[in-house]
Amino acid sequence: MITDSHAHLASHRFKPDEVADLVQRAADAGVSRIVTLATCLEDLGANLEIAGRFPSVHACIGIHPCDVHSAPDDAVERIAAHVADPRVCALGETGLDYYHPAPDGWEEEVFRERQRVFLRAHFELAVKCGLNVVIHTRDKSGAGSFEDALAIYKEYASRTRAVFHCFIGAWENAARVLEAGGLVSFGGVATFKNAAEVRETVARCPDGGFMLETDSPYLAPEPHRGQRNEPAYVRHVAERLAALRGKSLEEFAASTSATAAEFFHFR
C-alpha cells in the first residue's frame, strides 16, 4: 500500500542479519515497496543483494556527493555496468552537499566542483539508460546546493526526470522543481513540530508531484524522532500528511505509491 521511496538498508546502522526483520516490519505496517539506495561503489553490491532477496525491495545505485572525493574518476562508468539489472530502478543518490566541509586535503570549491561533475555524469547516464535520478541537496545556510542542482537538472529535464529527496524547502522552490518536470519527496522532517514550512509545501503540492520516504536509518518521524529510523515508520509520515491534505490513508498511499511506481519504473 505505502511506498518508502528512499531508505538505506545496507547502512552500517542496520546489521545484515536484521534486514529481513526490517522488511517484515515494514510489510506489517502496510509498506509494500522499499527503494534502497547505494551511496558508493562499496555498498552497491550489498544493496543489489538485498533487492534480489526481497521482492518488495528495489535498488537505486549512485555515488553520494559526500563520497565523491574517495570515488575513482570512472565510478559512474562502473555503475553503468549495472543499469540493465532488473533490481535497479533509478540512479542515485547523487547531488550536491554544501553542508559538510571538504575532506582533508581538498579545497572547498574543488570538492564542490567534483560533486557537480559527478551529478552531471549521473544525468548523462540516466539519459542513455532511461532511468531517473534521485538528488540530495544540503546547505549550512541558504539554498546554494539546491540552486546549483536545479540548474544542472534543467540541462537534462527534457530527457530524464529527477526527484529532490527529503525536501524541506519552501513551496516556491518545490514549485520550481515541479515546473521543470521533477518531483519532491517528504520524510520524517514533515512530522516535526517546528516544520510548519515543510507542511505548507506538502499542502500545496499537487497529487502526482511528490512521494514519501524515510531516509532510514536517519530522520525518524514523530513519535520516533531521535531514534534509528526504518521503513515501517513511513506509515507515520503517510498518516500525518494524509490528514494534512484531508485524505484517507488508503487514498493518500495509493496516490503517492502510483507516483513512485511511475518514477521508478517498478518491474
UniProtKB/TrEMBL annotation:
Which family is it part of?
Answer: Belongs to the metallo-dependent hydrolases superfamily. TatD-type hydrolase family.
Question: Hey, what's the signal peptide range on this chain?
Answer: none
Q: Name one cellular component (GO) term.
A: cytosol
Task: List the CDD domains hit by this protein, alphabetically.
Answer: TatD_DNAse
Instruction: Kindly state which keywords UniProt assigns to this record, in alphabetical order.
Output: Hydrolase, Metal-binding
Q: Where on this chain does a divalent metal cation 2 bind?
A: H136, H165
- Spell out the InterPro entries in the cross-references: Metal_Hydrolase, TatD-like, TatD/YcfH-like
Q: Could you identify this protein by its name?
A: TatD family hydrolase
DNA damage keyword on record: no
Q: Which residues take part in binding a divalent metal cation 1?
A: H6, H8, E93, D215
A single GO molecular function, which one?
A: DNA nuclease activity
What the entry lists under NCBIfam families is as follows:
YchF/TatD family DNA exonuclease
